[in-house]
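$ run holo --ligand "zinc ion" --emit tokens
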Amino acid sequence: MEINKSVEDDGVIFMSIKDKNEESSGSGSEDVTILAIESSCDETAAAVVRNGREVLSNIISSQIALHTVYGGVVPEIASRKHVEKMNGCIKAALSEANLSLNDIDAVAVTYGPGLVGALLVGVSEAKAIAFATGKPLIGVHHIEGHISANFIENKELKPPFMCLVVSGGHSHLVVVKDYGEYEIVGQTRDDAAGEAFDKVARAIGLGYPGGPKIDAAAKKGNPEAFSFPQAKIADAEYDFSFSGLKSAVLNYINQAKMQGQELDPNDVAASFQKAVVDVLVGHAIRACKEYKINSLAIAGGVASNSALRELMEKECAKEGISFYKPSPVLCTDNAAMIGAAAYYEYQKGKRFGLDLNAVPNLPLGDRERRYHGRR
Ligand code: KG4
Ligand code: ZN
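-- output --
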């Protein structure tokens, strides 16, 4: 992936991402070209995706620097910036793809889960484009987008496969039974993995966003320095619980402070990260073996964590499981993944009306239930 970055006057980072390996094939009559929009949190993003896997353009306008001073995403600032940046992102996405609105077959947008005000900006924009052009509108589940990011660089990946989705708001282990068909094997009972990274980073003074900061600090620390509890639930084989681990780390830090001890933040970061990664990898591999699924993918912002990628790769190789991962820039929020997910919905004939609304707590399809497949 080639990333061209520039910082705008207001501190927003404008990125254009290109896949260096992508050979742009000419457009055929059967081709489906989708303009995709994402605005569920603090990234305003637009992309043009052909046939679900060929990214013609991928634009991200990241507000991260604006939220860093507050230690986390401020929803109202996020919504207001989306309003300012959205049209520029869409224009850039179309222009890089050398296309106009007339050339696209459908417009896709994330309609949940996420911050309601932020989602509404993307949803309103997509509806306006669909209304003005008469093109079909496709609403996409944000997590379905994260999972579909795996299709972009792994052309051979097809369902069924197991996917570990770990982001700032979600931690799910799902079986992707078919395109758009998911069954949950395990999920977090409390905090999401990314949330735990962000909170622990704040506690050890690394700041926001916590995930990448802990990832970098952990490289300089000793993962065996502290033995933190594992983030699992005794009576639910594949569920996660990150709040206990987070509290244990915070208590440890407070106790050390009271006793006047100096803790090395790099050691805390490395030991905390190990506790998270060991459980994520352990659950995912066990689930693949138990459900007899031979392909495993990872998705979501935390899937860009270097320790998780390394350990998962190693354990999959040991067990003979094929391992898939998106490039780090496709793990965090982007619109190319939304275009990838939308293509399979488009092919199934799924269309949304102009009454589409944002759904902040949208479940992962109406199939959000336990997996009862063959064990
Ligand atoms: O998927 P994402 O971009 O947004 C949501 O849908 O939530 O995920 C953001 C989360 C944040 O909590 C961030 O700290 C975490 O992903 N994250 C990471 C890394 N990069 C981002 N966590 C661990 N290691 C990383 N390298
Ligand atoms: Zn996300």
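-- notes --
The chain has two domains: 2-155+331-369, 161-326.
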